[in-house]
Amino acid sequence: MAQSSSGGLTVNGFSVPLILYGTAWKEDRTEALVELALKTGYRGIDTANQRRHYFEEGVGQAVQKAIASGLCRREELFLQTKFTYLGGQDHRLPYDPRASLATQVRQSMQSSLEHLGTDHVDSYVLHGPSSGVDWCPDDAEVWQAMSELKRAGQTRLLGVSNINLRQLHALCKGDGEKPSFVQNRCYARLGWDRSVRNLCKDRNITYQGFSLLTANPEVVNHSGIEIGVLESHSG
Ligand SMILES: NC(=O)c1ccc[n+]([C@@H]2O[C@H](COP(=O)([O-])OP(=O)(O)OC[C@H]3O[C@@H](n4cnc5c(N)ncnc54)[C@H](OP(=O)(O)O)[C@@H]3O)[C@@H](O)[C@H]2O)c1
Fold it and tell me: Whose CA is nearest to atom 35 of ligand 1?
């Protein structure tokens, strides 16, 4: 990982913005809010093919509009989406639930590419391992399928989310593709996920923290933080 000329990061040779615009829970405001984010200058978007929490098609509509209007080019965008197991989905599935996991991954990716109107994404993330404890054979099958999509050029980079230290160790020890990203909810009271972040550092994995504000109200509402914000606003 290195700082790129655009002020973002370079991860395995690809430019990655320092901040991604998160698109969960925006429902029918997704398109307008992503459009606004792009107009404001965001070039990295995080979404998921999980209709329960994200409206990926709305993200794609905003992206297409921005490209068609000349606001940005596809090459300037960093589009990240996710594969979500059946347990994390509602009835609006992007794959056949009776198909093998590898097929579900391929179908989910195909559907994401259609939603986003692109022939590749920049990062494809496993939304979370199948168990909260270990890296299981199902995860290995899914990761293998995601790795094949990477080799086929449908994603530039791979990532994994909601992963614990034990699972990340197991994934890194395997002989398959290594993740470029870990995306975890980052709690101050749990030491800001220090052990996972340390392993990421050792393995040259870029850590994406999410819910930094909403997961940490005690920090956000701390009087010292308020003073800092007031000071920076006052000049
Ligand atoms: N991998 C996963 O399992 C997973 C799960 C959930 C989410 N995500 C991703 O992460 C994104 C959310 O993470 P995030 O890092 O953006 O969350 P965050 O740091 O908690 O911020 C989310 C939003 O909360 C609002 N907010 C909360 N407290 C605030 C405060 N004190 N002052 C100002 N604004 C405050 C702001 O939105 P408003 O101004 O609009 O209120 C802010 O943009 C999702 O959209 C999704 O892309 C991933």
Answer: 213
